[in-house]
Specification:
Elements lengths: L9 H5 L6 E7 L6 E3 L10 E4 L8 H14 L7 E4 L5 E5 L3
Length: about 100
Amino acid sequence: MARKTSFPPRSEMFSFIESGELTVKVTPNASENSISLPGATGPAGVLLVRVTATPENGKANAAVLRLLSKALGLPRTSLEIVRGGNARTKVISVPG
């Protein structure tokens, strides 16, 4: 049985979007898919995204976009990685 992935409230995730861009820090090869808000010691203004996909052939990037589209309630095709395609810190274009 698949576990239901929990997300922070949408309003809080949308508050991280600045000028139509959302900055995320990705952890690939995680034990589960999740999105969390930064803690007191985390990077300010950056959502923390964990995906189970491996970072090869764009699998982790695709998983990040699928997870964000589900969490934000937006179509997957409306999200695009604009910076950091090969880095852990990525900037995602989000329609306003």
